[in-house]
Amino acid sequence: xxxxxxxxxxxxxxxxxxxxxxxxxxxxxxxxxxxESFDTSGLADGFRAKLLTAAREGLAFDTGTGLPEHMIPKxxxxxxxxxxxxxxxxxxxxxxxxxxxxxxxVAETLAVVAPALTADRDGRPDAVVLRRALYRYAFNCSExxxxxxxxxxxxxxxxxxASLPLKDLADAVVVRKALDAxxxxxxxxxxxxxxxxxxxxxxxxxxxxxxxxxxLAANPIDQVxxxxxxxxxxxxxxxxxxxxxxxxLLDGVGSQGRYGEKLxxxxxxxxxxxxxxxxxxxxxEDQCDLPKTGWGTLYLAKTAPRAGSAWTDNGKPHEERGLKxxxxxxVRPVPACPELVKILREHVxxxxxxxxxxxxxxxxxxxxxxxxxxxxxxxxxxxxxTARQFxxxxxxxxxxxxxxAVSTWLNAGVPPAQIAEWxxxxxxxxxxxxxxxxxxxxxxxRRRIEEALGDGAEAG
Length: 460
Known about the structure:
With 460 residues, this protein is α+β, with helices and mostly antiparallel strands. The protein has helices at residues 41-56, 83-94, 100-116, 127-138, 150-162, 172-182, 193-212, 243-254, 257-273, 277-282, 338-350, 370-384, 387-391, 400-411, 416-423, 427-433, 441-453; strands at 3-4, 7-9, 13-16, 21-29, 32-38, 61-62, 288-289, 296-300, 332-336. The strands form 3 sheets. Strands 2, 3, 4 and 5 form a 4-stranded antiparallel beta sheet that branches. It has a 3-stranded antiparallel beta sheet with strand order 7-8-9. A two-stranded antiparallel ribbon has the order 1-6. 30% of the residues are buried.
């Protein structure tokens, strides 16, 4: 408002038109003319009286509208950027830099948060429909998403209208709603602690992006005394098999028909070399140094995790990428013990890979499907383990073979830094995750304490 106290109000003029008579009022503010027409003389007199009263009381007039401040019509407050709009923009910004599984994780988190940050509006879609629309379309930037159904379009239109302004996140009560939503499943039961921790990290990063763009002054989650449920990354010692059990399981895989025979080396890579399943899928013959005797070396360069065609750039369920936590072209050498070298050499002889192709392929070509090798593993466990062992967590998942490999190396006394390099993660993660899988450390610690304390009989 540009104020002025230079105000002059003229008398009301009557204008008789062909169809009706109107009453006109003219006034001047800071040398600028203003005019207003009314249908009745009473309305004109009332408006003129208000202007004169404001001028006599010394109120400032706006030179833009010609009205005193209290008579200027209130403009509806602009809603500004909404939470939903910001989250869509955040997902699009992250998409090109993320691996397919990470894209899926971001979309999953935002599809939980966005509905919790909406106003009460009529026509709210079913919760399952809304979450599916957000997960598969709003926060999925793939060019292969396909057309939206009417149901999906209606759901996205609703949340675009109902989403709260982004600035409302400055209110701790609003932020807490989103955090509470992250801790629950669709049926209202508590989500796994690890899942809550992961989703909170994504939401925190999304709000950090708003701070980066100066849409928020600070990350509002820092102002809320809300803690995610405690989660443990420790490997359960019960899932770890010993060498005898591991060999029995590998033999069990080999007895599952021809496909089991082809996958024995696949599982052997997880146990003897601690490969992730996605790394074993991408291993090629030219990346394997397999001497006739002694130790060999595997040179890992790629990984092919399954994420689903909706999250990959190539539109296929798997997409080869660089190694986890490594630069795109970095190679990770891993030692292959003589037993593993022998298994791999036999595999190459029996199932020769195509030139430049991976060691393991599906029946019709392509990457080995997770569901197929999981079924083979389940059957192998049933055949190789006792009923009690089968019902236990022992090697429940193929990934548990990797845990067994790392645990074996630790118990063999291999330096943690070397194991971390071979396994492809940090020393800090290694010691935190496998803390309970190192056998015999308690006894060693007790002996050292006894030696430090000396002979108790000498005391006194």
